[in-house]
Amino acid sequence: MKNELVEQVERAVDRQRLIDTAIALIEVPSPTRSAGAAADRLAEILAADGFPVQRHEADWPQAPIVLASLDSGTPGPTLQFDGHLDTVHLPYVPPRLENDTLYGSSSADMKGGIAAALEALRVLRSLDALPAGKVALTAHDHHEGPWGDGRQVRAMIRDGLIGDAVLLPEYLADPLPLAGKGLAIFQAVIRREGVPVHEVLRPPGTPDVVAAGAQLVSRLHSWNEKLERVSHPLAGHDSTFVGSLQAGEIYNQSPTECHVHGTRRWVPPTDGAAVREEFLQFIAEVAADTGVEIDVEFDVQGGAYQLDAGNSLVHAFQNAHTALTGAPLPLGAKPFVDDGNAYASLAGIPAITHGPAATGAHTLNEAVPVEELVRVAKVYALTAVEFCGGP
Ligand SMILES: [Zn+2]
Fold first, then answer.
1. Which of 99, 108, 121, 198 could form a Cys-Cys staple with 358, CB 3.0–4.6 A?
2. Cα of 60 to ligand 1 centre, how many Å?
3. Which of 268, 283, 302 is the endpoint of a domain?
4. Dihedral sign, CA of 112, 81, 313, 353?
5. What separation in Å is there between the alpha carbon of 170 and the centre of ligand 1?
6. Distance (Å) from CA 186 to ligand 1 centroid
7. How far is the CA of 281 from the centre of ligand 1 (A)?
8. In Å, how far are 190, 208, 218 from 248, measured between CA atoms?
9. What is the pTM of this model?
10. Model confidence over 38-89: pLDDT tens digits?
11. Same domain, 269 and 336
């Protein structure tokens, strides 16, 4: 990569413009399923900047997705920058700039990152630096669970509103995640017929849902020990975990329901549908052995994925990172599940989650250093030049 271009990009990133954009987005509260006004704000900013903007319902008409693009005019691949505008349902904290750090709801997760990606788009345009292909900026609702179900990203994939590769500016600055686990949340409800009854008045043969729940937890625990042997060099190993077991009202009353909630995580290349099938089979066996009915919901939040280190997006990213910092970013795994899992496992396109080293996601104390937003804007702009320009 030419030093001259790197220097131009470093100079072209406008720190104040980036801060103003981030604040303009954070100013609009956008809890999941109510991100429409924030999407409108982003569309206004992009339009005011002169970028062509499209809106698509993407299965959630309350907040049509925002899609803006920068076209080099020369055929080539499309790099997508994608972010979610919605936030977890916590009390709203307004934006505030203090000690060169931006605070407020979604500053870390992830409107700061979206503002940085938008700044990269502006820089690429002002320098006319994109040698070929296109860059598309997309933003959507329905990310944060359990309020959102990921429908807008799935709709974007279904409707072809995606690039050939995607960068997601979530709050992960290090390492470069080449693999990630899949995650499903399960809720099993063990039921018996009848009504709650005094222990000594139970009809003979009344199933014991508490004992069945305990047995389910114990069998999941044993299964987890076996699952730990299913491993991946970067992503770790498979698991199942119970975080909640609830049943009963008082000590001598036989309840009719017992609830067991937990997770199942798996490493690549296992497919989510196969994991689901296996889990339902496991539950059916426990139900048959204990003589109770077990209803189970098994919601896949994101599939497992892995990227080849020789992939063209990884290559482009590492060239950009090296040009800016003198070294490639260490390789590792993604500790959480985000929309990148859907892009990689459902759409089959390379997805890299890389954003500011921000803190406090999913708390009232979100914070992102401005310096990090500036850094991400530079990395995104240069990665686009490398990816779209080809080798
Ligand atoms: Zn996020």
1. 108
2. 18
3. 302
4. positive
5. 6
6. 22
7. 33
8. 12, 11, 18
9. 0.91
10. 999 999 999 999 999 999 999 999 999 999 999 999 999 999 999 999 999 9
11. no
